[in-house]
From TrEMBL:
<protein>
    <submittedName>
        <fullName>Erythromycin esterase family protein</fullName>
    </submittedName>
</protein>
<dbReference type="Pfam" id="PF05139">
    <property type="entry name" value="Erythro_esteras"/>
</dbReference>
<dbReference type="InterPro" id="IPR014622">
    <property type="entry name" value="UCP036794_erythomycin"/>
</dbReference>
<dbReference type="InterPro" id="IPR052036">
    <property type="entry name" value="Hydrolase/PRTase-associated"/>
</dbReference>
<dbReference type="InterPro" id="IPR007815">
    <property type="entry name" value="Emycin_Estase"/>
</dbReference>
Length: 432
């Protein structure tokens, strides 16, 4: 499958990674970049979350980054944002906030690792003026019902004229809600209803300056409307039964990211947390041959002049939290040793310790990792017994600007509660 012939011994750009101080070469690499995208090789690994948090803390404290944007739903993540900024009607505790994450896979954000980081963010924000407080926002497109409910309730209170359009839009979707299937909802929609979604976003965007009765109220209304608009495109793509929905989803995440950057002003800097498959440049994988692009590629193409740094993660063995099938109970599963010919196995053979790789144009490390090599990607649905199919052929030094290799990892620590049912797999076509 992969050659695995690359020899990385004595390559100077491979450094030990034991503590926060060892991140110095990465922080130096980031420099004045405005976009830092931090990946993960699974949605259920403790160390990916904690190392991303450690990098994020340094970027916030040392380089003044403005907000964190994650592979999560806008309405749920905005509740975290409310809590860390102490906005009106915020929950009393971060555990209360995270227990409102009810869409499977709940463990992805409702876990103790996120709780600890959110607590740090709140403490950091406490001494700051509001416009300096660090935010936490969701980029994803899946929160159809939640976004619809949020915007209808808000507009009924603040903007009755636009609320009538919002309620009319919601009524179009209502007959399909019991199915809990987004594709079914799309197929049932009339063209009139689809047009109303687009019109709703237009109306809200024109009126956002009227909605600031509390901090970020206008932003919340606009982004919930954007979810509705792009969900329409997503459902149409899903109904085609091909992979075009991937592009629609990642386009939405970048559009949301750009909206957030515009909102925070010309000096804004953002940290993005998503799976490697979203933040690693798709052009350095087989995705490009299938006509797919992703967040990392689009951000590089659109914002190169502002500085973009993509950071991948990977590990050799350990455990991971995932489900056997879509909607299955979460389990702590074995993460088998990486296969021969993979970047993870190659780095393990250099020694069973964590490593930081920083890629510099023309360096020896870049030359050694310019060809495609296997790189493990674990989704929320995972079968350790079919491990070989989880490897993505990648030109590592082109896919990322830096890479954190963690030799042995463990599953993260979920808050233990059950999701409210399980959406059909159309919401995560790749399980990532």
């Amino acid at each position: 499958m992969f050659s695995g012939n690359t020899n990385l011994k004595e390559v100077q750009q491979i450094r030990p990674l034991e503590n926060s101080k060892d991140l110095d070469p990465l922080i130096e690499k980031i420099g004045n970049s405005k976009y830092v995208l931090l990946g993960e090789a699974s949605h259920g690994t403790h160390e990916y979350y904690t190392w991303r948090a450690e990098i994020s803390k340094r970027l916030i404290e040392e380089k003044g980054f403005s907000f964190i944007a994650v592979e999560g739903d806008w309405p749920d993540c905005f509740k975290i944002n409310r809590w860390i900024k102490d906005l009106p009607d915020a929950s009393n505790s971060i555990v209360e906030v995270l227990k409102e994450f009810r869409r499977w896979p709940t463990w992805m954000w409702a876990n103790w690792e996120i709780a600890a980081f959110a607590d740090w963010l709140k403490t950091h924000n406490n001494s700051l003026e509001f416009d300096k407080k660090v935010g936490f926002y969701g980029l994803d497109v899946y929160s159809l019902w939640e976004s619809m409910e949020t915007i209808v309730k808000y507009l009924e209170k603040e903007d009755p004229e636009t609320a009538a359009l919002a309620r009319q839009t919601a009524d179009c979707f209502e007959p399909y809600r019991e199915n809990d299937s987004y594709v079914t909802a799309y197929r049932g929609l009339k063209q009139k209803c689809r047009n109303e979604v687009v019109q709703l976003l237009k109306e809200v965007r024109q009126r956002t300056d009227q909605y600031e009765n509390e901090p970020e109220a206008g932003l919340n209304a606009e982004l919930n409307s954007l979810v509705l608009k792009n969900a329409e495109k997503y459902y149409e793509a899903m109904a085609q039964f091909d992979h075009s929905s991937w592009n629609v989803r990642d386009n939405h995440m970048v559009e949301t990211l750009n909206t957030l950057m515009d909102y925070h002003g010309k000096d804004a800097k953002v940290i993005v947390w998503e799976h490697n498959t979203h933040i690693g440049d798709a052009r350095a994988t087989d995705m490009a041959a299938s006509g797919l692009h992703n967040v990392g590629q689009l951000v590089r193409q659109q914002h190169k002049k502002d500085g973009v740094v993509l950071v991948g993660f990977g590990s050799y063995e350990g455990s991971v939290v995932a489900g056997e099938f879509w909607g299955a109970p979460m389990e702590k599963m074995e993460l088998p040793r990486a296969i021969d010919g993979s970047i993870e196995k190659m780095l393990h053979t250099l020694g069973a310790e964590n490593k930081l790789l920083v890629f510099e144009e023309g360096s020896e490390l870049n030359k050694r990792l310019k060809e495609k090599i296997g790189h493990r990607a674990v989704g929320v649905v995972y079968d350790p017994h079919r491990e070989r199919g989880n490897y993505v052929p990648s030109k590592t030094a082109k896919r990322y600007d830096a890479f954190l290799y963690l030799d042995k990892t463990q599953g993260l620590h979920p808050l233990h509660f059950k999701p409210d049912g399980s959406k059909t797999p159309d919401t995560y076509p790749f399980g990532i």
